[in-house]
Write a structure and sequence with these properties.
The chain is an alpha+beta fold and 375 residues long. It has two domains: 85 residues, Phosphorylase Kinase, domain 1 (2-Layer Sandwich); 220 residues, Orthogonal Bundle (Transferase(Phosphotransferase), domain 1), CATH 1.10.510.10. 34% of the residues lie in helices and 13% in strands. It is built from eleven helices and eleven strands. The protein has a six-stranded antiparallel sheet with strand order 1-2-3-4-6-5. Strands 7-9-10 form a three-stranded antiparallel sheet. A two-stranded antiparallel ribbon has the order 8-11. A hairpin with a 6-residue loop joins strand 5 and strand 6. Helix 3 runs antiparallel to helix 8.
Length: 375
């Protein structure tokens, strides 16, 4: 079957409305589940790959993995079919956008914003790690922001059980900018592999760039075998030393020197946030995302239920990037390295550095205030 058109029906139940996004092997559509009378997203495999066992296995693996996992910080999968002429996943409809789109709109994030994004992503990843699953493709494109501003981890197409994650082919699997050294040299993978990729995401959130580059994809991939990830503060001014330390612990070249998994990374992030007295923050929605534009278009299906106000929340600007009052930290955890680093900083220095960056970087200080933050 060629590209689906508005009004086409999958498995006699899901009525196609319009495409949201296209990738190399699939297209995501907004559609209506006529049985439950709700809007969902259908990720439909490109017909060119219907006879490709590798892609079929990837699709099936994603469905099985996500069916095992249920959490607000994970994109929900409701249904899967590989029996007819269409192979598809039915997923939760995300009306906000991707972290990639948010970065493209607003540029590097101040520490408190980056921390909140990472907190949501790591919370979702920890659910997968609890099941012994290695995601293998952590990157901003696979981190989504729901209409309620919840950060959600998506796309488990490359997931593997940690016990089965040694590479068995000569191909590098993953996205070059975010893969860990062991994904390049063929060493066994572990939960720490995802930690490295998450550390690269943190680096990009803080600086607006990825740490390595290369003339070719292979050169880009090989760079992480010879070089450590540089401190984010070496790329952009105002990054607190504790975030340099956090990034270094996540992206150590030797997996044994990293956080062991998402839980440990999350604990360290919370320690840093408390030590720096970072405020609570609501992650904004990208206003120019593909999902946002599609959500703003009236559906072509005449019997779609009326959209309630909560579902169009993404049309409003919600959170300005202004520095609010910082609450006192509350933590019962301590990390010697982080404590030593904290002693090197004074509250005044941190306030000047972080404050100066807030108002001088990207668009994170100039969004009109429409709703006052509750902190």
């Amino acid at each position: 079957m060629s590209e689906l058109q508005p009004g086409d029906v999958l498995e006699g139940r899901y009525v196609i409305d319009r495409p949201i996004a296209r990738g190399g092997m699939s297209t995501v559509y907004r559609c209506l589940d006529t049985r439950l009378d709700r809007e969902v997203a259908a990720k439909v495999m490109d017909p060119r790959y219907l006879d490709d066992e590798v892609f079929l296995d990837r699709f099936s693996r994603e469905a099985r993995a996500m069916a095992q996992l249920s959490h607000p910080n994970l994109v929900g999968v409701y249904d899967f079919s590989a029996d007819g002429e269409d192979v598809f996943l039915i997923m939760e409809l995300i009306t906000g956008g991707t972290l990639r789109e948010l970065l493209a709109e607003r540029g590097p994030m101040p520490p408190h914003a980056a921390a909140e994004v990472m907190r949501g992503m790591l919370t979702g990843l920890a659910v997968a790690h609890d099941r012994g699953l290695v995601h293998r493709d952590i990157k901003p494109d696979n981190i989504l922001i729901g209409g309620d501003h919840t950060v959600k981890l998506a796309d488990f197409g490359l997931v593997r059980a940690a016990s089965e994650s040694s590479r068995s082919t000569d191909q590098i699997v993953g996205t070059v900018a975010y893969i860990a050294p062991e994904q390049v040299d063929g060493s066994p993978l572990s939960l720490a592999t995802d930690v490295y990729s998450a550390g690269i995401v943190l680096f990009e959130l803080l600086t607006g760039t990825v740490p390595f580059h290369g003339d070719t994809p292979l050169g880009h991939a090989m760079a992480r075998l010879q070089h450590d990830v540089p401190p984010p503060s070496s790329r952009i001014s105002g990054v607190p030393m504790l975030f340099d330390e956090l990034t270094a612990s996540a992206t150590a070249r030797n997996p044994r020197d990293r956080f062991t998994g998402a839980h440990e990374f999350l604990d360290a992030l919370d320690d840093v946030s408390a030590s720096l007295r970072l405020p609570h923050f609501v992650v904004p929605l990208p206003t120019q995302s593909a999902a946002h534009r599609v959500a703003a278009i009236p559906t072509s299906i005449t019997h779609v239920p009326e959209v309630v106000p909560e579902e169009v929340e993404e049309l409003e600007e919600v959170e300005p990037y202004a520095e609010p009052h910082r609450p006192e930290p509350e933590t019962n955890r301590s990390t010697p390295r982080l404590v030593v680093a904290l002693l090197l900083m004074t509250a005044a220095t941190a306030a000047v550095a972080v404050g100066g960056w807030w108002y001088g970087s990207g668009f994170y200080g100039v969004i009109p205030e429409l709703i006052r933050p509750a902190f």
